[in-house]
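Support request, please re-run this one:
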Amino acid sequence: MKRTFTYPFTPTRVIDGDTVEGYADMGFYVKRLVSVRLIDVNTPEKRGREKVAGLVVRDFVTDWVIENKRNLELVSKEVDKFGRVLGDLVVVSVESDTPGFKVTTTNSLSVTLLNKKIAKPYKGGKRVPFTQKELDAIVKELE
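Re-run finished. Output below.
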């Protein structure tokens, strides 16, 4: 079983719907610029016939990252063959209505993309292209 690592994350740019670049805070004043490939999801590409949907999803991810940038954490297990960190970006918030009782909620970018149906599940291997019907539905969902 692979260990899971969690780091505070400061985004610098959104490359596309499933890749975000930013600084992982390793602790002790050490930060590393990493490219994070969201694990278990695939979004439309920003080129070719998927371009319109790909750009719309990238803009959605950019807005999500900006909205949550103060509380982002990178949860990761490994690095892919291109040197990208495979992981997820999550927002962890702790709420306390009752003294001594805390409720922790987590908002995951990957889960958000899947729940909105603007990404497909992906477990590696050959990428299955989006159908035109799926691309049209994504654009309609986000506009």
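Residues 91 and 107 are 5 Å apart (CA to CA). The two ends are 41 Å apart (CA to CA).
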